[in-house]
Write a structure and sequence with these properties.
mainly alpha; 0% strand
Amino acid sequence: NAHRVLKLGGAEAKLNALADAASSTAFSEAEKAALAYAEAVTRSDREVTDELFSSLKNHYSDNAIVELTGLIAFQNMSSKFNAALDIPAQGFCQVQLVND
């Protein structure tokens, strides 16, 4: 969805810094919390810890967290749907895999 971000006026520099968002100065603490949450929800080798959820609540209301969770879930469903039907990527988003 990088294409959509850019279309809506988002900063390309932030998109390029996503792989290192946790240590990047391009993101606010609220954005870092949301990105960490998205990663924890998305990756099966991670979990949403009490500490992570507490960090989210420092920046977002309960309603905003519910909305964020819905958006993350939709993107995950969309990714799985496309993969199952072998729908190729449209080239709008480049993903850099980082080994942990």
